[in-house]
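G., the chain you wanted modeled:
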Amino acid sequence: MPVHDWSRVDAGIFHAFHTGWIPGIQGALNGGLLPEGFYALAEQHAGRTIADVLTLHVGPASSGYLPLHPATGGTAVAEAPPRVQRRQTIELAAPARRRTLAIRHVSGHRLVAILEIVSPANKDRRTSVEQFAAKAIEAITAGVHLLLVDLLPPGPWDPQGMHGLLWQQFEQSQEPYDLPADRPFTLASYAAGAQVDIYLEHLAAGDSLPEMPLFLSPDRYVNVPLEATYLEAYRGMPAFWRDVLEGREPA
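Predicted structure as C-alpha cells:
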C-alpha cells in the first residue's frame, strides 16, 4: 500500500484515519512484537478526544510479573542495525543529559518510548509547531525514545518537516535540514541516551512504508509494522475518501 497524499483531503479526514492507525499499531505491538514486561498504550493530549500518541512502558523493576530489564528485549543494534536510508548522531550537552529522570508515567510504570504520528493540528500554526517540537525535545533529552511519523507536507512553520525543525533545535543552528525536495515525508526514530542516534527514511506519495525501529533502550529495538497497520486502518476509511486519495472520481 503506497503512502497517500493527505493534503488532498481536509484535516478531519486524516484525523479519522489516525483514529484507526494508532490502535492498529498498539495491537501489533501488544500482540507479540514487544518483549515481556513492555506494553503500548494509545493516549491523547490534554483537551483532545483523539489519541495522538502511542506510548511504550515497562513496569517497575520490583514488579514480580514484569521480570525483564529493558536491555534484555528486542533486537540488538550491534547484531542487526536498523536498515534505513540515513543515520545521524547528536551529542547532547551535559545539562540535557542530567534530566534523564524527569519523565514518569502516572501508573508508576516507566515511560520508555513514544510513537507520534504528526497530524494537521500539529502544523496549523506557529505555536502548534513550537509546542510539538518542545514536547519531542523534552522527551528525548529525558531519555525517552521517539518514533516520529510525519506523512504531511512541510508547512510555513516546519519548512524541512518536523524532523528538520527538531534537528535545527538540537544543533542550535539556523542551517536548514537537507530534506529531499522529491521526498518530503519523514520517518525518524530517535534512540535517546548520552547521545541521540537517529534513523531516518524520507518518502514521497506513492512510496511503500518501511518498518521502523522503536527503541526499548539505546541499543535495542523492535521494528514497527507501519505498512501493515496503515493498510488495515485505510481499509476502514469510507470509499468516497479512498477514491479522492487515490485520484479517482468519487462515486
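Residues 46-51, 61-70, 94-106 have pLDDT under 50 and may be disordered.

Shout if anything looks off.
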